Amino acid sequence: MILSRQKGRIVPVTERAAVRGLAADKDNLIWVDLNRPTQDDLQWLSDTFGFHDLALEDANKQKQRSKVETFDDHFFVVAHGVRPHQKSALDLIELHFFVGANYLVDIRHDQFEPLEHLLENAAQSRYLQQGPDFLLYALMDMAIDTYFPAMDRIDDAIDQMDRKLLETPAKDDIERISGLRKQLVFMRKHVSPQRDVVNALISRDFPAITSETVFYFRDIYDHLMRIYDDIDFSRDQLASQLDIYLSRVSNNLNQVMKRLTVFASIFMPITFITGFFGMNFGYIQDRSPGWWVIITVFIVAVAWANYWWFKRRQWL
Amino acid sequence: MILSRQKGRIVPVTERAAVRGLAADKDNLIWVDLNRPTQDDLQWLSDTFGFHDLALEDANKQKQRSKVETFDDHFFVVAHGVRPHQKSALDLIELHFFVGANYLVDIRHDQFEPLEHLLENAAQSRYLQQGPDFLLYALMDMAIDTYFPAMDRIDDAIDQMDRKLLETPAKDDIERISGLRKQLVFMRKHVSPQRDVVNALISRDFPAITSETVFYFRDIYDHLMRIYDDIDFSRDQLASQLDIYLSRVSNNLNQVMKRLTVFASIFMPITFITGFFGMNFGYIQDRSPGWWVIITVFIVAVAWANYWWFKRRQWL
Amino acid sequence: MILSRQKGRIVPVTERAAVRGLAADKDNLIWVDLNRPTQDDLQWLSDTFGFHDLALEDANKQKQRSKVETFDDHFFVVAHGVRPHQKSALDLIELHFFVGANYLVDIRHDQFEPLEHLLENAAQSRYLQQGPDFLLYALMDMAIDTYFPAMDRIDDAIDQMDRKLLETPAKDDIERISGLRKQLVFMRKHVSPQRDVVNALISRDFPAITSETVFYFRDIYDHLMRIYDDIDFSRDQLASQLDIYLSRVSNNLNQVMKRLTVFASIFMPITFITGFFGMNFGYIQDRSPGWWVIITVFIVAVAWANYWWFKRRQWL
Amino acid sequence: MILSRQKGRIVPVTERAAVRGLAADKDNLIWVDLNRPTQDDLQWLSDTFGFHDLALEDANKQKQRSKVETFDDHFFVVAHGVRPHQKSALDLIELHFFVGANYLVDIRHDQFEPLEHLLENAAQSRYLQQGPDFLLYALMDMAIDTYFPAMDRIDDAIDQMDRKLLETPAKDDIERISGLRKQLVFMRKHVSPQRDVVNALISRDFPAITSETVFYFRDIYDHLMRIYDDIDFSRDQLASQLDIYLSRVSNNLNQVMKRLTVFASIFMPITFITGFFGMNFGYIQDRSPGWWVIITVFIVAVAWANYWWFKRRQWL
Amino acid sequence: MILSRQKGRIVPVTERAAVRGLAADKDNLIWVDLNRPTQDDLQWLSDTFGFHDLALEDANKQKQRSKVETFDDHFFVVAHGVRPHQKSALDLIELHFFVGANYLVDIRHDQFEPLEHLLENAAQSRYLQQGPDFLLYALMDMAIDTYFPAMDRIDDAIDQMDRKLLETPAKDDIERISGLRKQLVFMRKHVSPQRDVVNALISRDFPAITSETVFYFRDIYDHLMRIYDDIDFSRDQLASQLDIYLSRVSNNLNQVMKRLTVFASIFMPITFITGFFGMNFGYIQDRSPGWWVIITVFIVAVAWANYWWFKRRQWL
C-alpha cells in the first residue's frame, strides 16, 4: 500500500508509476508499505528509488540482524519486535525500512497490527505530518513496544516459578526455567544490535534525522536500555532459581536417605535380635514365658533408643 | 510546593502565575517540588518552562532508567534511591529533575523525607544559597545516601548468614542467600546508570554546572563507586556462601550414608550368622550350650571387627 | 591456474612469464590460484609480485589466524571456512589472498569446490568483471558461506538433543553436548578474528577497495555477525542442556533412592515381625490358627500403612 | 609532625604558624604528617593550604576509595596498603595525601611503621631531597609494598591447601578456601582503583609530577599490575581447589555407597538362603548332615561369586 | 659476552672499556649478553649506557611482568618464554633487553640455548647484519617460539585425557585436569602482557624500530595471538572435561545405587516370605511337601517379576 502527503493531505497512491513524480517534490511525503513483496515489487523499488541489490536481498530474505546502513541518498534500517498475542517471545517480527529525504519504504513478511492500524488511520495521525524520520520513529517505536508485554509475560512466569519452587517443586521445573532463559537470551540477541542501531541514529550524522526527532529516538533508546536491563535482571533471577532448584533436589535426596537410614538403623538391630533367638539351639528353646517378655522389652528399648537418637539429631 | 530565592531571601511562591515572572530575573532561584503531579501540573510546567513532552511523560510514568538528557536551555535528570525504613532494598524512590539556568523542578511520586525536611527548612539551608546545580547536588546526594543504610543492612545479613552456615545451616538458607543476591543485583541495576549520569554531569559541558559544584558531584561519584564496589564484593561473598551451603548439603548426605553403611555393615553379617544357625537342619539343632556360647562370642567378634574398622577409617 | 581479463575477456594464462607483463597494464585483471604451492611457486610469486617472505611463509605453513596485513602496494588476507560435506565443524579451509592494484593471488592447500567452480566458469561470471577487491569479496563470501550449513547442522543436533533429553536421556549425552560445544568454540575462535578482518576492510583506508565494493564487504560483515550471534545463542542453549542433563541425573538418583527407601521401609518392619514370631520360645510355638491369622492381618496392615504413607507423599 | 627542608637541611617545624611562611619560599619542602587529626588540625590545614572541605571530610572519614583529584594548586590522593604483621589481608591501611607545589600533607588514622621510620630518619633519607612528588612516590611505594608479604601469605596458604586436599581433605576446607578467596577479592577491590590512580599520575598532566619521578611511579604501576595478575592467578587456583574439593566429596560418597552395595549384595542372597532353609516345613527339617554341608558350600559359593564380581569391577 | 659488528664483520669484544668507543660510531652494532649479572656488571652498564637504576634493578630482580618502557635514548623490554625440555609450562625464562640506537643489551638469569647458539654462530647469522631492532626481533621470536612445544604438550595431554575419560576415568583425573588448567592460566598470565608489549612495538613510534622490522614484529604478534587463542580454546576443553568427569562421578553413583536397589528389591520380598513361613506357628509347621513346592515357586515368581520390572526399565 502506498500513501502520500501532498500539501498536508494524506492521499493513497493507487498508481505506482506516480510515485517517482511525487517523490520529486521535496514537500511531499511518501510511505510505501510492502507485505511479503514479490520480485516485481522489489524490482519496482530498485527502479524507482535506486535501492542497492544487497539491501533489497536482505529485505527479501529476512532473518537479518538489526542494522543501519547508509547509502548515497537514503539509509536502510532493520528492526525487530516480538509477535504480539504469542505465548513465547521466540517469535519475531522483522521490519525493514528504507528512509530517504521525503519517503519511507517498509518491507515486512508478516501482519503487524499497529502498523496496519496506522495505515488505515493515517489521515488522523500526527505521524505523517512530519518528515520520514518521524514516521520511522513511530514504526520502530511500535516494534520495540512489543517487547514490554513479552517481558511482562516472562517476569510473571518467573514470579510464578518463585512461588512454585517454595511450594511444590516438580521435575520439569528445570525445563521451564531454561525455556524462560532461552526466551531471554533470544530477546537479548535481538535487542542488543537494535540498541546499537538506535544509538547510531541518535549520534551519527544522518541528515535525514532532524534534531527534533532525535529526542524521540532517544526515547526509544531508553526503552531498549530498560528492556536490556530487565533481561539481565531476569536472567540473574533464573540463575538463582536454578540454584534453588538444584539445592532442593539435593535436599530431597538427603531427606530420602535420612528416612532410609532411620528405618534401617531401627530395624536392623532388632531383626538381628529376633534372629539371634531364632537360632536352633536347644539351650534357648522351650524356655519360660518370662524370657519372652524380657526379650520383647529389650527389643522395644533398642528401637526406642535409636528413634530417640534420630529425633534429637533432628533427622525426623 | 514552590520556593523562590529573591535577593537572598527564601520565599514560598503561592501563585503559580508568578513563577514565569520570577524566572525571568536571572538572580532569582526557583525550586518547584511536585509530588504525584496531575495532568494540570504537567501542563503548567510545559507552558511555563517549555519542557519536552517526552520528558514530562517519563516523569509522569516513572519506572525510568537513570539518565541525563540535554534540551535547549535546561537538562533533565532521573535519579534513584532506596526507600528508607524498608526491610528490602527492592523498593525504589525515583526522582526526576529539570534543571534550568535559575530553576530546578523535581517530580516524585512518593514521600521522601530528607527532601521534605529541606523544603520546610529551606530558609536556614545553604543549599538554596547557590545556583540550581548546587540544589541538584543536594537532592541527588540525599537520594544516593539512602543506599548506604540499605547496603549496611545487606552486609549485616550476609555476616549473619556466614555465622549461621557454620553453626546451624537450614533448608531455606539458599532462598535467603538468593534473596540477598536479588537485592544486590537490583541495586546494581540502578546504581550503574546513575554512575554514568553523574560522570556525565562531571565531565561533559553542562553550562548550568559550575566548576565549583563539580567538586560536589565528584563526591557523589565517589559514593556511587564505593556502593558499586561493595555490591560486587558482597555478590562474591554470596557466591562463596552458596558454595559452602551446597558443599554442606553434600557433606551431610555423606554423613547420612556413612551411618547407614556402618549399620548395614555391622548387622548384615551377624544377622546372616543367626540365619545360618536358624536353618532347620537336625544336625545343628538340640546341641550343647557350649555351641551357643561359641556362636555368641563369634557374633560379637564380627560386630566389633566391623565397628573397629569404621572407627579407624574415621567414619564414626 | 592463472586467469586474466584483457579488454573485458577472460583468458587463461599458460605462460607464467607473461604475468608480469600483463600486470603492468592496469586495465587488466590477473587471478592466480595456487593449490598446495611448491617452493618454486612461492619463489615465482616473490619474484613477480614482490610479496614479503613472512607472508609467503604464512601462506605456506597454514594454521594461521585470520588477519589482514598491508604492504607497500598490496595487502594480505587470511580467511577461513568450514570444509563442506563434513560431519564436524572442526575441519577448516584456510585461504590466503594477496590483493594488489589489479591482481589477486589466492593460496590454498585444499580442494574448495565453489572456488574451483568459479575458475572453470570465470568467463560467464560477473565476479571478474570488476577489480580484484570484488573478486576478493566473491571468494571470501564463498568461504564464509560455508559456516551456515555447519551452523545449521549444529543447531539441528542441539534441537535433537533437546527432544532426546526430554524422552530418553543417556549416559553419553554429556559427551555429545560437549562435542557440540567444542565445535561452537572452535568456530567462534575462527569467526571472531575474521570479523575484525572484514571490519578493517570496511573501515580502514585500503585504496584497493572501492566504495562500491565496501557495500559487499558490509554484507559479509553482517553474515559474520549473525554467525557469531548464533554461536553465542547455541552455546547458551548447550549450557542449559548441561544443566538439564545434570539435574536429570540427580533426579534419577532421587528416584532410585526413593524406590529403595520405599522397599526397605515396607519390608523391614514386616520382616522383623516374622523374625519376632520366629524366635524359639515355647510360649509362642504351637498356638492356635487364630494367632496366625491375626499376625498375617497385622503384617498386611503395617505394609499397607507404609505404602499409603509413601503414596500420599507422592514417592510412588 | 611537621618537617621542612630549608636550603637542603631537614628541620622539624614546631610552630604551626610558621608553616605558611615556609611554604611561601618555593625552594623549601614541607611535609606535614597527621595521625588521627582533630577538627582543629583539619581547620588549620584548611586555613593554611586552602584544602577543599570535601577532601578534608574524606580524609577524616576514611573508608574512601583510592582516587586522585585535582584542585586549583594541589591534588589529593587516597592510597591503601595492608596492615603488616596481620594474619588476614582484610585489614587495610588508608593514606590520604595532599600534594602541592612544595608541600605534602599526609593524613592517616593508624600507625604505619615505614612512614614513621622515614619521619625519624628524614635527615639521612634521599626521599626529602627532591620535590613533594618524589616524597609521594616514596610513601605510596611503602603502602603498596605491604601487599607483597600479604600475597605471599595467601599463596603459601593456597599451596598448603593443595597438599592438604591430596592427603587429608576435611570438612572445613571449603570455609578456608572461601576465606582465602574473600581476602583476594578484598585486595583486588582496593588494588584495582589504585592502579587507575597511579596510571593517572603517570599519564595525565600533573604539573607537580616531574618527568623524572614518572619513572618511579611507573615502577609502582608495575608492582600493582603484578599484584593484580597474582590475585587473578590465585583466584583461579582457588576455583580449581573448590572443584577438587567438591569432586572429592562426591567420590567419597561413591566409595561409601559402593561399600554398602557390596555388603548388601553379598549378604542379602545368602541371608535369603538361610531364611529359605529356616522355613518350618517338615520336608526340609531333620535331614542328614549331607544337606547341611551342601547348603554351606552353596552359601560360600554365592558369597564368593559376588565378591569376585565386585573385585573384577574394581569396586573393592 | 660482548659482540660487535664493525664494517660488516662480527668481532667479539674482550675489553669492556672499548664498548663506549665502539658505540660512538653509529654504524657499529654492539650486542652485550649478560647471564646472571653481578653488581659490577650492572654498574658498568649504568656507566657505559646510562640505564636507569629502576630498570637495572628490575633486570636484576627478575619476576617482572612483560613490559616496554621508553627512556631518553633507549627502551627497555621484558619478554618471557617457557623453559624448553621441561614437563610443565610453569617454568619461565625471563629476558630483559635494553635497545639503543646501535646496541642491544640482554640480561638473563638462565641458560637459553637458542640465544647461546646465536652468540656462537653470530658471524654466519643474518640477525646481526641489521639494526638492534632486528636482533631484538630475533631474540624475542626465540623466546616466544618456546610456547609452541609447551602448548603442544598440553594439547596432547588434553587429548589423552579425552580418551581416558571415555575409557577408564580415575579418581585423580580432576587433579590432572586442574594441573593442566593451572599451566594454561599461567601461560596466559605471561602471554597477555607480551601481546601488549609487541603491539606497542608495532604501533607506537619507537624510532629504533624501522618500518621494515615492524613486519617481523607483526609476525611475533600473530604468534602470540595464536597462542592466546589456543590457550582459550584449551581452557574451554578442560572446562568440558571437568563437566564430563563430574557427570561421570554422578552417573557412577547412580549405577551403584541402582545395583543396590535392584538387589534389595529382589531379596527383601522373598526374604520376608521365608521369614513368614519361618514363624513358629504349629499351623504352618509339618505340612506336606506340596506346600514347600508352591512356596518355592512363589518365591521364584516374585524374584523374577522384580527382575523383569528392572530389566524393562533398563536398570540392568
Strand content of chain A: 5-15%
* Coarse morphology of chain A: rod-shaped
Structural class computed from helices and strand pairing of chain A: alpha+beta
The CA-CA distance between the termini of chain A, in Å, is: 73 Å
Number of strands of chain A: 7
Largest interface, and how many residues on either side? A-B, 43 and 53 residues
Using the CA coordinates, give the radius of gyration of chain A: 35 Å
Contiguous low-pLDDT stretches of chain A (5 residues minimum) are none
**Helical stretch tally of chain A:** 9
Oligomer: homopentamer
Order of helices and strands of chain A: EEHEHHEEEEHHHHHH
Side-by-side strand order of the widest sheet of chain A:
2-1-3-7-6-5-4
Residues in helices of chain A, as a percent range: 55-70%
How do the strands and helices of this protein lay out in sequence?
Five copies of one chain form a homopentamer.
Chain A: E1 2-6, E2 9-12, H1 17-24, E3 29-35, H2 39-49, H3 53-61, E4 67-70, E5 74-82, E6 92-100, E7 103-108, H4 113-120, H5 132-145, H6 147-167, H7 173-203, H8 211-276, H9 289-312
Parallel strand pairs in A: 3-7
Antiparallel strand pairs in A: 1-2, 1-3, 4-5, 5-6, 6-7
Helix pairs in contact in A: 5-8, 6-7, 6-8, 7-8, 8-9
Outline the structure in words.
- The structure is a homopentamer of 316-residue chains.
- By secondary structure, chain A is of the alpha+beta class.
- Helices cover 61% and strands 14% of the residues of chain A.
- The first copy, chain A, is built from 9 helices and 7 strands.
- The first copy, chain A, has helices at 17-24, 39-49, 53-61, 113-120, 132-145, 147-167, 173-203, 211-276, 289-312; strands spanning 2-6, 9-12, 29-35, 67-70, 74-82, 92-100, 103-108.
- In chain A, strands 2-1-3-7-6-5-4 form a 7-stranded mixed beta sheet, with helices on both faces.
- In chain A, strand 1 and strand 2 (9-12) form a beta hairpin.
- In chain A, helix 5 packs parallel to helix 8 (211-276), helix 7 runs antiparallel to helix 8 (211-276) and helix 8 (211-276) packs antiparallel against helix 9 (289-312).
- The mean pLDDT of chain A is 89.
- Chains in contact: A-B, A-C, B-D, C-E, D-E.
- The interface between A and B is large, with 43 and 53 residues.
